[in-house]
């Protein structure tokens, strides 16, 4: 019965997104709720971990030297970030934010950036650095801060030394700006490499690329991207109802970048989650709850 619902949903999402890989992720999430994940879950609840990667202008377009698109995407994120953070604070919803370290400093490393890229960064400071107010917004106790790399370069393209350098820079800049270390890592483009370095440097959790990952080993199950391209509020409602029908406690990781939707659109998704009785959590507070339960 549950598998039938999954298959119908899978084919519908697959058609609408024209075969984008997200359709498969939708399928995996629900399948993950049917098969037991080998990890203690919190009784009778669907916990949702909202997780935002914050890169502003340092996106994929920037590294392809498509600066017009990079700035457009960065500006979209900039428009949405404050209203969404304020909305989450007003609603007292806990969430995770992973920041590209370079957004927190004006020092530009010329071994990373070309002179052309440096020119673009200097011309659009608001798109390539986080202002004081946004940093304050992100410093409140509802937010668990994490790293999205230092430069947003893909770790799989870096040497071990470069990856090491990126992580050290991120930790250093976090300690300076936020007086704390990052506790979560979302790898740029979700392409994992040198995962062992995280533990070495005291970053305990990361976004994994598997749905069946056990969070106590550090990897947050991938979950899915929350955007109006990948899923509509109605589809999210269906997914949550299927999980509930299956009567399984479940941890759903929903990630995005502040670029995917305005606060008005975001509100529609949050209402669906609340109407289904979902609770919200950060990565470490979920683990804390699990440990208290055992
Ligand atoms: Zn990213």
List the helices and strands and how they pair.
Layout: H1 2-16, H2 21-34, E1 46-54, H3 60-63, H4 67-90, E2 95-99, H5 115-123, H6 125-128, H7 132-138, E3 143-147, H8 160-178, E4 184-185, H9 195-200, E5 205-207, E6 219-220, E7 224-225, H10 233-245, E8 250-256, H11 263-275, E9 279-280, H12 283-293
Overview of the structural elements:
- The chain has twelve helices and nine strands.
- The chain has one domain: Alpha-Beta Barrel (TIM Barrel), CATH 3.20.20.370.
- The protein has helices spanning 2-16, 21-34, 60-63, 67-90, 115-123, 125-128, 132-138, 160-178, 195-200, 233-245, 263-275, 283-293, and strands at 46-54, 95-99, 143-147, 184-185, 205-207, 219-220, 224-225, 250-256, 279-280.
- The protein starts with a helix and ends with a helix.
- The model has no long low-confidence stretch (mean pLDDT 87).
- Helix 1 packs antiparallel against helix 2 (21-34), helix 1 packs antiparallel against helix 10 and helix 10 (233-245) packs parallel to helix 11.
- Strand 7, helix 10 (233-245) and strand 8 (250-256) form a beta-alpha-beta unit.
- Helix content is 47%, strand content 13%.
- The protein is of the alpha/beta class.
């Amino acid at each position: 019965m549950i598998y039938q619902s999954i298959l119908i949903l899978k084919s519908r999402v697959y058609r609408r997104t024209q075969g984008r890989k997200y359709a498969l992720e939708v399928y995996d999430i629900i399948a993950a709720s049917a098969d037991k994940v080998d990890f203690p879950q919190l009784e009778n609840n669907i916990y949702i971990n909202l997780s935002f990667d914050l890169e502003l202008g340092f996106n994929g377009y920037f590294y392809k030297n498509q600066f017009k698109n990079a700035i457009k995407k960065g500006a979209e994120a900039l428009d949405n970030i404050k209203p969404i953070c304020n909305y989450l604070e007003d609603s007292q919803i806990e969430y995770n934010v992973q920041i590209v370290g370079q957004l927190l400093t004006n020092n530009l490393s010329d071994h990373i950036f070309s002179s052309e890229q440096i020119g673009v960064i200097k011309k659009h400071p608001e798109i390539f650095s986080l202002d004081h107010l946004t940093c304050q917004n992100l410093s409140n106790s509802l937010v668990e801060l994490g790293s999205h790399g230092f430069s947003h370069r893909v770790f799989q393209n870096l040497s071990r030394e470069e990856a090491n350098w990126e992580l050290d820079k991120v930790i250093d800049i976090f300690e300076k700006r936020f007086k704390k270390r990052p506790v979560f890592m979302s790898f740029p483009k979700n392409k994992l490499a040198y995962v062992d370095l995280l533990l070495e440097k005291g970053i305990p959790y990361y976004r994994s690329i598997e749905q069946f990952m056990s969070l106590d080993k550090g990897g947050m199950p991938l979950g899915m991207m929350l955007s109006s391209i990948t899923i509509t509020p109605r589809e999210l409602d269906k997914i949550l109802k299927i999980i509930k029908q299956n009567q399984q406690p479940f941890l759903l990781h929903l990630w995005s970048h502040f670029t995917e939707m305005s606060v008005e659109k975001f509100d529609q998704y949050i209402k669906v989650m609340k109407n289904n009785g979902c609770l919200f959590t950060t990565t470490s507070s979920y683990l804390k709850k699990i440990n208290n339960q055992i």
